[in-house]
Design a protein that fits this description.
Radius of gyration: 19 Å
Number of helices: 8
Order of helices and strands: HHHEEEEEHHEEHEHEH
Structural class: alpha/beta
Strand content: 15-25%
Largest sheet: 7 strands, mixed
Length: about 260
């Protein structure tokens, strides 16, 4: 089965699962069909997963990981003891865990093709990730509090696990309060403690809360670095600060 045929099969399966969707005619080219697949995966609610669908989905996502290129932790130089900075797609990192900036529902982003990191991670990991998060939330019985964290497998990503944490939301243009700054520190600390409890040796942090949640980039980086350095004083753990924007890359390198 070539890639276009495989993607068309996956799309047809998801459309059958969600008959309420109104899908306009999609061009038969590979790019359009692949965008449709990501959009359908984004909006699919948690429900039982078909084994044959998962086999083919995993085949596609695993191939795409290799095509994007896997970045090993040894490929990234230290900028401080046990601390590295890497600018790029966090779904390419081969580490014990990457950190996902989640929302309070913890199920991933349901906006089709949205540019947030939550959407990118769920789209690359596969539908098993939403299912795993849903099981956590069903057992928990309430929305995820800001500052806490949960761990799941990473499924089709090169990392082993994903640490999901909900950062504070700051109204655009307003400075964060001290309580909100403490909540952001809690996000980093909760992820670090979860990593230690699961004997993880390397963690890649995204810039929690600085995107859709509008936490000021400079202050967020200061909090992240201070919290991580305090933890590293008593723990042996390799940390990557994964930045996506040039602004964050510059801030982290200046601070470190």
């Amino acid at each position: 089965m070539n890639r276009l045929t495989l993607i068309k099969y996956l799309n047809a399966h998801l459309i059958r699962e969600m008959p309420e969707l109104e899908i306009e005619k999609i061009p038969d080219d590979l790019s359009a069909q692949r965008k449709l697949l990501r959009a359908l995966m984004n909006v699919r609610p948690p429900m039982p997963l078909d084994k044959n669908f998962l086999k083919l989905q995993d085949e596609l996502l695993s191939a795409e990981v290799l095509e994007r290129g896997v970045i090993k932790i040894s490929d990234i130089p230290n900028v401080a003891p046990n601390i590295k900075i890497w600018r790029g797609d966090i779904t390419r990192l081969e580490v014990d865990a990457i950190v996902n900036a989640a929302n309070t529902k913890l199920l991933g982003c349901f906006i089709p093709l949205h540019g947030c990191i939550d959407n990118a991670i769920h789209s690359a990991a596969g539908l098993q990730l939403r299912d795993a998060c849903n099981k956590i939330m069903e057992a928990q019985g309430h929305d995820e509090p800001t500052g806490s964290a949960h761990i799941t497998p990473a499924f089709n990503l090169p990392s082993k696990f994903i640490l999901h944490t909900v950062g504070p939301i700051i109204p655009f243009g307003r400075k964060p309060t001290s309580a909100e700054e403490n909540l952001l520190a809690d996000c980093y600390e909760s992820c670090l403690e979860l990593a230690a409890a699961n004997n993880l040796k390397s963690v890649a942090f995204c810039c929690i809360s600085t995107g859709e949640f509008h936490f000021p980039n400079q202050r967020a980086a200061e909090i992240a670095i201070a919290t991580v350095k305090k933890f590293l004083a008593t723990h042996d753990l390799k940390i990557i600060f994964n930045v996506f924007k040039e602004l964050d890359d510059k801030i982290y390198r200046q601070l470190l």
